[in-house]
Amino acid sequence: MAHQNQSLQDLQHIKNMMERSSRFISLSGLSGISAGLCALLGASIAHSKISLYHHEHSTLFNEDRGTYIFRTGVYSLINELVLIALLTFVAAFISSFLFTYLRSKKAGIPLWGSTSIRLFWNTIIPLFAGGLFLLRCLQFGQYELIAPGCLIFYGLALVNASKYTLGEVRYLGYGQLILGIINLWMVGYGLYFWAIGFGILHIIYGLLMWFKYERASITSKNE
Amino acid sequence: MNNPIQNLNKVFDSRVRLGIMSTLMVNDEINFNDLKQLIDVTDGNLASHMKSLEDSAYVKVNKGFIGRKTNTTYAVTKAGQKAFQQHLDALEKMIKTMK
C-alpha cells in the first residue's frame, strides 16, 4: 500500500512539474474581471459619443448596405473612437497585468520566465497581424469590419495562447470567435458585440477561473 | 507474480530527478537557473542530481554563453525519454495493483 501511495504521489509530482514548466499558470481570474470592466466602461463611453454624434449630425441609414452613411464630422468621431479603444486596451492591459503580477508573486513564480515569454509571443503574433489588418480597414473606410475583426483576431490569439497558459483560455477564445463571426452578418451592432465579447465574456471567464483556482488556494491556506 | 517494484527505475528514485525529467520531457531545452527555480533546490543539489542523470545518459548538456555569462542548458536524450516512459508505465502498473 505504501508503494502505491508513493507511486500516486510521484505521478502527481510529475504532472505538476510538466504543467509548471511548460505553461504560464499565474494568470489570475481577477485579470479577466478587471479587463472586462475596462471594456464595458470603454464601450459605454463610445456608445455615448456615438449617440451624441447622431444627435448633432443628421445621418442617413443606407438600407442596401445596412449601414449608416455618415456626413460631416465623421472623421473626428472615428478618431475619438479609436482613441477610446486604445485607452481601453491600455487600461485593461495594465489592470490585468497587475493582478497577474500579484498572483505570480504570491506563488513565487517569476513573472518574466521562459513560460511567460513563450505565452507573450504566441499571443502577440496574431494580435499584431490583426491590428495591422484592422488599421488598413480603418484607412479604407471599412468601419463595419472593425468590431468583428477585433473579436476574431483576439479569439484566434486566445486559442493559440491556450497551449501556453491555463487550458480554459481556449473556450474564451472560441466565445470571442463565435461572437466575431456572428457580428460579420450583423454589422451595425458592432459595439454591442464588442461589449459582450471583451466585457461580459472576460468577466464570466475571470469569475470562473477565480472560483476554480484562486478561491480554493485561499481557503486551503486558511485551514 | 513478479514484484512490480523491480520495473521502477532506481535513477528516478529522487523527487528532484523526477522533477528534472518531467520538466525536460515537455520542454525542448531548459537552462540551469530556470530549472533551479522550478524545482526549488540549491545549485549544488541540482548539479549533483544532474550529474547522475548525465552519467546514465538520460540528459545531454549544452554549455554556451550569453555575452560573457555561461548559459548551461539541458535536454532529454532518446534513452532518457524511453527510460522515463518505462518508469511512468511501471508507476501506472503499481497503482493498478491497488484494485
Topology:
The complex is a heterodimer of chains A (223) and B (99).
Chain A: H1 2-22, H2 29-56, E1 60-62, E2 67-69, H3 74-107, H4 114-139, H5 146-161, H6 169-184, H7 190-222
Antiparallel strand pairs in A: 1-2
Helix pairs in contact in A: 2-3, 2-7, 4-5, 5-6, 5-7, 6-7
Chain B: H1 15-26, E1 30-31, H2 32-39, H3 43-55, E2 59-66, E3 69-76, H4 78-96
Antiparallel strand pairs in B: 1-3, 2-3
How many β strands of chain B by DSSP? Answer: 3
Low-confidence stretches of chain B: none
Q: Which term fits the overall shape of chain B?
A: elongated
Order of helices and strands of chain B: HEHHEEH
End-to-end distance of chain A: 28 Å
Look at the structure and give the mean pLDDT of chain B.
86
CA(first)-CA(last) distance of chain B: 15 Å
Task: Report the portion of residues of chain A in β strands.
Answer: under 5%
> What would you report as the Rg of chain B, rounded to the nearest angstrom?
15 Å
Q: Fraction of residues of chain A in helices?
A: over 70%
Radius of gyration of chain A: 21 Å
Percent of residues in β-strands of chain B:
15-25%
Helix and strand run of chain A: HHEEHHHHH
**Spatial shape of chain A:** elongated
- Kindly report the spatial arrangement of strands forming the biggest sheet of chain A: 1-2
- Biggest interface: chains and residue counts? A-B, 19 and 23 residues
Q: How would you classify the helix and strand content of chain A by structural class?
A: mainly alpha
Please, could you describe this protein's structure?
The complex is a heterodimer of chains A (223) and B (99). Chain A has helices spanning 2-22, 29-56, 74-107, 114-139, 146-161, 169-184, 190-222; strands at residues 60-62, 67-69. In chain A, strands 1-2 form a two-stranded antiparallel sheet. The longest helix of chain A is centred in the middle third of the chain and has 34 residues, at 74-107. Helices cover 78% and strands 3% of the residues of chain A. Chain A has 223 residues and is mainly alpha-helical. Chain A contains seven helices and two strands; from the N terminus they run H-H-E-E-H-H-H-H-H. Chain B has 99 residues and is of the alpha+beta class. In chain B, 53% of the residues lie in helices and 18% in strands. Chain B contains four helices and three strands; from the N terminus they run αβααββα. A three-stranded antiparallel beta sheet of chain B has the order 1-3-2. At the A-B interface, helix 1 of A face helix 1, helix 2 and helix 4 of B.
